[in-house]
TrEMBL record, chains A, B:
The EC number(s) this enzyme carries: 1.4.3.19
Pfam hit, one: DAO
GO terms (BP aspect): thiamine biosynthetic process; thiamine diphosphate biosynthetic process
Keywords: Oxidoreductase, Thiamine biosynthesis
Species in which this protein is naturally found: Micromonospora halophytica
Protein name: glycine oxidase
One GO molecular-function entry: flavin adenine dinucleotide binding
Length: 384, 384
């Protein structure tokens, strides 16, 4: 590249690639740095677009952002399909939330009463109504509800599509890793490096391990069920995400650990809950067991906006369990910030400065510099 | 090879390689044909040397052969270690047979009473005695017994050692598969091709699928237990084989199927039984789930001896669940037959002719021919 890029995105997961696509579509010169695109949390993620089933007590502002991003997903998906020319498994059958035992159902009911109180679309169903929708559910499932707006997408295919769209719009992916922000030369740097953002920025992003299984229906038939099933089974929370190609994703553990080993106990718990909820899954092939690291934050909400003390550096990380659903809103808001220098009010609860100044002793937290000739003081002012 | 080999072994699993080693050590020119040595049932096998715990009702003659071969294992292992120059995980701590519930214990007791009746060494233990030997056992294990003579070996390392010993003794392994016996040119052909023997010989060898897991202790420590544990857990039969390098093999299903898919239900049943018996296994990494095909026969006993109607062809297959423990006696008896033309009386119950003539319509059942100048009429006479 002969001229300095307008935007350098560090991290080619869905968030980074979507930002690159959106910025390149606005006419900016964009590079994306990632030695292994799509190899982070998204490679393991199930891809539920679940503003409702992911709305938990005490996370009002996050729930609002989830709902906002989920509302943007249909338009985002349509644009992306056209821009990328490939499919990525966006499905809109909705999600069933079910409880296996009466204790499980009581737990699920507590949560969906809260979700209903927020005005989110979730409708309780009688067991017979559940089984009318999904005959594959175990007869002993005690009850549930439907969240018709909780959809799904295949994250691995999403990465392929986003990369294609970004490259078609002119973004480039030079090889090689980025060890320090000081190594990046661009007018604006966007750190969308998932857990890697901690080392690059000093922000409090920690790895949260998730173990996930991938099953496949025998003879490559489609799975016996079409809805995403979010189940509580003997105290275990599990989700089952059916894909058209026969895959069923079963997830996920949430562990405060930084290793990516697959453990016997986690596989046992996931399989037991899955087979308790949908007995036919016992006949499915177990084709993959994997573990990924979600980028968690102190309040479980993402970190979106200018990095304090680092003019020209934006952050888009900390998406924790919600990276896929939050991809459209993250890309829109960060792109707007890059292009106009103006922060959308939606960003306010999620800016990096809510955690105080980044850890200045961190080796990766060196200033970006020296500023090149294209450096714009407007952005620096706006972001700091 | 300029001259016709004395012996061509078809199949480089433990049985075929042990025969090759023994024959080459006797001064014969030996070739072993296998496009992928060690890739059959032995690659999945756990490697229990269990004449006692594998003695089932109605299998007297097989039990005798198991006991005979197990008795030969210590000498075989010592010779092999010297000949191969590599270790293969031969361990002699013995086997604990345990029952989780009182029903499981009743089932286990029925079997070990039968085994005691045959004079096999198995001694009941009180729960406190069990836990003195293996504190890792779950507190709710109701009781068990010890079979001190039931040992173990690592089949993957055994294949490496046997191949090394065979090659050091002069055997060669030319590349490429053998599709028909007629393609093999040797004075004597030994079919030790596991399930592949059916197509080559027309004998009634069928695949019996087994699914097996491999766990690994965290931080590559040795497992928390030293004995092989053969357990009955809520009606599920499972074995746990600890290796010095931290591996624990958990097996195995016995399924009348010919595919090698790993299924969710099998992994669930194996893990549940394993963790019920030794709870700490939940913390172990699940490093491999695999399926292999055992060569089963109508009476579950191996097929050892001359192939009817095919002068110069011997068979050593059909070892089903017992290929590893039966390797020494199989190699000794087949080698003796090759060298002297005399059949040891031990072979009598296991010769191929007990199933009548092989399926003559089978494409692989063509005669070996034409007989070359080294062809020996003695063997032909003895074997037919």
């Amino acid at each position: 590249m002969l001229t300095r890029p307008d935007v350098a995105v560090v991290g080619a997961g869905p968030v980074g690639l979507a930002i690159a696509w959106r910025c390149a579509s606005r006419g900016l010169r964009v590079v994306v740095h990632d030695p292994a695109p799509g190899s982070g949390a998204s490679h393991v993620a199930a891809g539920m677009l679940s503003p409702v089933a992911e709305a938990y007590f005490g996370e009002h502002e996050l729930t609002g952002l989830l709902a906002e991003s989920a509302a943007r997903w249909p338009g985002f998906a349509a644009e992306l399909a056209q821009a990328a020319g490939v499919e990525f498994g966006h499905r809109t059958e909705g999600t069933l939330v079910v409880g296996l035992t009466s204790d499980d159902l009581a737990e699920a009911r507590r949560l969906w009463s809260y979700q209903q109180g927020l005005g989110l679309p979730i409708t309780p169903l009688r067991p017979s109504q559940l089984r009318d929708r999904e005959p594959a559910l175990a007869p002993r499932v005690r009850g549930g509800a439907v969240a018709p707006g909780d959809h799904q997408v295949d994250p691995r295919r999403l990465v392929v599509a986003l990369r294609s769209a970004a490259e078609r719009a002119g973004a480039t992916l030079p090889p090689g890793p980025v060890a320090r922000l000081a190594d990046v030369d661009a007018r604006v740097t966007v750190v969308a490096a998932g857990c890697g953002a901690a080392a690059l920025t000093g922000l409090p992003v920690r790895p949260v391990k998730g173990q996930v299984l991938r099953l496949r229906a025998p003879d490559r038939a489609a799975p016996d069920f079409r809805h995403v099933i979010r189940g509580y089974a003997d105290g275990e929370s599990v989700y089952l995400v059916p894909r058209a190609d026969g895959e069923v994703v079963v997830g996920a553990t949430v562990e405060e650990r930084a290793d990516t080993e697959v453990t016997a106990g986690a596989v046992l718990r996931l399989l037991r809950a899955a087979v308790d909820l949908v007995p036919d899954l016992a006949e499915y092939d177990l084709v993959e067991a994997s573990a990924g690291l979600r980028p968690g934050t102190p309040d479980n909400a993402p970190i979106l906006g200018p990095l304090p003390g680092h003019p020209g550096v934006l952050v888009a990380t900390g998406h924790h369990r919600h990276g896929i659903v939050l991809t459209p809103v993250t890309a829109d808001l960060i792109t707007e910030l890059v292009v106009t220098g103006e922060a959308d009010p939606l960003l306010a609860p999620f800016t990096p400065d809510r955690f105080g100044p980044p850890d200045a002793t961190h080796p990766g937290s060196a200033r970006v510099g020296p500023a090149g000739p294209e450096s714009s003081t407007e952005e620096e002012r706006t972001w700091n």
